Write a sequence for this structure.
């Protein structure tokens, strides 16, 4: 076993870190307050290969590994978790679904534009009545001649208002249960597809989240993504990989919150000494640093297994569960170490604290991760 990253991976980490420090750090609070994803950042992200990290070079992708992808997401999240979330949804949900299950023609049609950052990708599974129980969705797609007619509404969709390409999951045969669900790829501007309410969120505010409504939205038959009836099964596979990305995002956020707290602890003086001299503060730093390393190892291990072509349902859920929960603790301790200054916007601690909560909810809540892990352990 060799736990070291390769020289190329160390270089990748430095490159993404420098980019995030220069191009993202100065704007973090401005974008958070505006509650807008900064579209001007897209070409810069794309120039670095971050809009198509794992996709084949024939589609313009960077052709990197799952471990490399974790490094990229981690470094973005260390500086701005909301930008990392958008990059993760674009890469790990929308584009990944097309890359894994799209036909050659669909890949040629959609991936190059996604990878070049000309359009943002969105992925619509969740509905107001179907979150954890995603298979309970109401959105339908009914075959009419050469078209599928989609009706329904998707909730909490990252890039729902600003995405140029969206993968939408819908029921095509209710009688068949999980095997009666299919995926489709839709372009923004298709008649019958409109953006609904934009969510006013606690955190991750620079990442757009909104409803998407389908009213008799007619899609040509060639926009069925993957086989009819396989949409939900394919979705679970997309989530197996996507959850590793959210684990990496959690590790990066925790690292950012930890570093901010460590810097502050060395600067802030009380009782005539830096608060970093107090054992109570040192133990928080030590515990968080240890948990972050453990989460990073779980995350890289899941990614490494994927790179070897191994199915990682259990490992992905373990990484996502543990990394997101320790990130919540790191962000909480970060605020505590800042005292009152952790509660105001002059320091980064409060934003990590707001952003982090999404990570135990999105792409399956912690409760659902435990359910997935337990089912794997029990062979169900
Ligand atoms: C900022 C943001 C971005 C998102 N982006 C996307 C996106 O791009 N695409 C997309 O499709 N979705 C997206 N989502 C939706 C997200 O995946 C769901 O919110 C999540 O899956 C939980 O669903 P829910 O909100 O309906 O909660 P619910 O399923 O209603 O859960 C409520 C509570 O009940 C618990 N619970 C539910 N079922 C069980 C059970 N069987 N056992 C134990 N506990 C249970 C949950 O763990 C939770 O604590 C996003 C959400 C947010 C907030």
């Amino acid at each position: 076993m060799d736990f070291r990253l390769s020289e190329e991976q160390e270089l990748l980490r430095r490159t993404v870190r420098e980019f995030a420090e220069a191009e993202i750090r100065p704007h973090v609070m401005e974008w958070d307050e505006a509650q807008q994803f900064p579209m001007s950042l897209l070409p810069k992200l794309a120039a670095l290969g971050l809009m198509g990290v794992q996709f084949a070079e024939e589609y313009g992708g960077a052709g990197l590994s799952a471990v490399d992808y974790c490094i990229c997401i981690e470094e973005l999240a260390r500086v701005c978790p909301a930008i990392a979330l958008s990059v993760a949804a674009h890469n790990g949900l929308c584009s990944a679904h097309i890359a894994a299950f799209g036909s050659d023609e669909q890949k040629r049609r959609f991936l190059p534009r996604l990878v070049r950052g000309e359009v943002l990708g969105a992925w619509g599974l969740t509905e107001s009545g179907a979150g954890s129980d995603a298979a309970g969705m109401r959105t339908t797609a009914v075959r009419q001649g050469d078209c599928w007619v989609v009706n329904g509404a998707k909730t909490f969709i990252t890039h729902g208002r600003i995405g140029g390409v969206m993968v939408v999951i819908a029921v095509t045969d209710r009688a068949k249960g999980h095997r009666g669900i299919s995926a489709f790829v839709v372009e923004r501007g298709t008649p019958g597809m409109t953006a609904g309410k934009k969510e006013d969120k606690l955190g991750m505010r620079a990442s757009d989240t909104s409803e998407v409504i389908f009213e008799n939205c007619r899609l040509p038959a060639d926009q069925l993504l993957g086989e009819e009836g396989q949409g939900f099964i394919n979705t679970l596979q997309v989530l197996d990989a996507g959850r590793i990305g959210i684990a990496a995002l959690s590790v990066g956020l925790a690292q950012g919150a930890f570093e901010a707290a460590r810097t502050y602890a060395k600067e802030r003086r009380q009782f005539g000494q830096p608060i970093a001299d107090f054992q109570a503060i040192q133990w928080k730093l030590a515990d968080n640093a240890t948990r972050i390393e453990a989460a990073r190892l779980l995350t890289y291990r899941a990614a490494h297994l994927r790179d070897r072509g191994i199915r990682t349902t259990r490992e992905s859920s373990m990484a996502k569960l543990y990394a997101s929960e320790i990130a919540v603790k790191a962000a909480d301790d970060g605020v505590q170490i800042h005292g009152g200054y952790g509660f105001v916007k002059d320091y980064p601690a409060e934003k990590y604290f707001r952003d982090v909560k999404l990570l135990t909810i999105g792409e399956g809540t912690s409760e659902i991760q435990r359910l997935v892990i337990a089912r794997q352990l029990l062979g169900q």
Q: What stands out?
A: The two ends are 31 Å apart (CA to CA). The chain has a mean pLDDT of 97. The first strand starts at residue 121 and ends at 124. The pocket of flavin-adenine dinucleotide is lined by residues 89, 123-126, 131-132, 156-158, 201, 204, 209, 358, 361-365, 367-368, 371 (CB under 6 Å).
